[in-house]
Amino acid sequence: MFGAALAAAAVLALPAAPAQAQADAGPEAYDAYLTDLVAASGVPGLSAVVVHGDETVFAAGYGADSHGDPVTEHTPMRVASLSKSFTAMAVMILVEEGAIDLDGTVAAQLPEFAMADPRAAEVTVRQLLDQTSGFADTTIDVVELEDATSLEDYVARLGDDALAADPGTDWAYCNANANVAARLVEVASGKPFADFMRERVFGPLGMDDSATRDEDVEPGLGSNSLFGLWIAREEAHGFLDDSGSGGIITSADDMGRWLATQNGHGTPLVGAAGLEAMHTPSAVQDYGMGWSVESDGTLAHSGNLMTYNAAQWIDPETGYGVAVMSTGAGLADVTWAAMEGLAAITAGEAPAEPGRDRQVIELVLAVVALAALGLGALGVARSRRWAERRAGRRAWATALRMVPLLVPAVLFAAYPAGVSFISGGRTVPWPQLFYFALPLTVTLMAAAVAGLAVAVARLVRLRSAVRSVGSAA
After folding, report:
1. Residues marked as catalytic
2. What InterPro entries does the record tag this protein with (predicted)?
């Protein structure tokens, strides 16, 4: 039943047909689209910016933050993995100053870097930034790394880990790449990562709402959705302060300045050659340095924490850039859909009509969860009658009748491994599954509990019934 429900949800969540093309792209068009999208998605808070060249043509916020204050273009939010492009910029600034050798080995420039794999000595700085270092969640204990207290501590914890592939031969998305790169920035510059970013990136661009730690800029609480209800929550435990992989906190207004410089406009942080290097994919994957390189020449990247989502996009040819940030993380990423819609408007195309994918999927999951609990309660109530009918039957036949009840529990036990596999090898531990995937987690747990409850009730009743039959004989 659960599989059929998910299949139905997937069909209902197919993209809607494009709306009629708009004649003009302007602030009104962006605002109308986002107003509809926020209303349709129910996301608690969202902000967005659109730039063209060095000009911000649109910036606004929608909804409210965790304190009930209106979200504006200046509301600071966590942007998760969008941070990787910021870390790449920090590295490239030092590359242009001669303080870092982009194609030199990390070990030669960061002597504290060592792993339980001799191939780690061959990893270059470029390979860290384009995710071809051989680092992977499958061979690195990313759960242990979440307890790191600094970038220096983070790098030290890699000492007993290994690579998944020879450097430069394969691509794997792994946060360790950006965090080692951020530590290299500290060592090469002689400054804490937070100070370097403030002085060399945020400051020159006028990004006054931005920082690498929440003690400098308070982002407030993000939220998760459970069957349509958004719940404000603390971000999941993990290495965030000064994290090169996901620690940046910023606003839509600041992101406008960031997108402009990434497109070669506004205040330059590096030269044209530096930008081109960051935007050029590696030989093994269409991924540059913190940017996915799309087939049409545009670049994009998503950012997903447990309670925040974000997305950014630039078109170097037209000079347009888009960033969207949300205070809510759920089964459906509203920021990516919004980014695609805004990007379509910049091209004079019609965005897809905002859908209610999340609500439909979560409604289906809620129905499945309630049905599972209801059937479980019914099964427990009828367990005595079931046991009395089977007290004299063969044990193997009775055992076979119990197998279907245990399937949900087996699926639930394998749940983290399954999600990790679907995520392309990224490690998704149990605690994280109670955040962005909360509706699915609760549904699977309800089915597992219901099945186990019926199984236990039947076994207890069966044992009693067998004893009664034995006594009568």
Report:
1. 81
2. AmpC-like, Beta-lactam-related, Beta-lactam/transpept-like
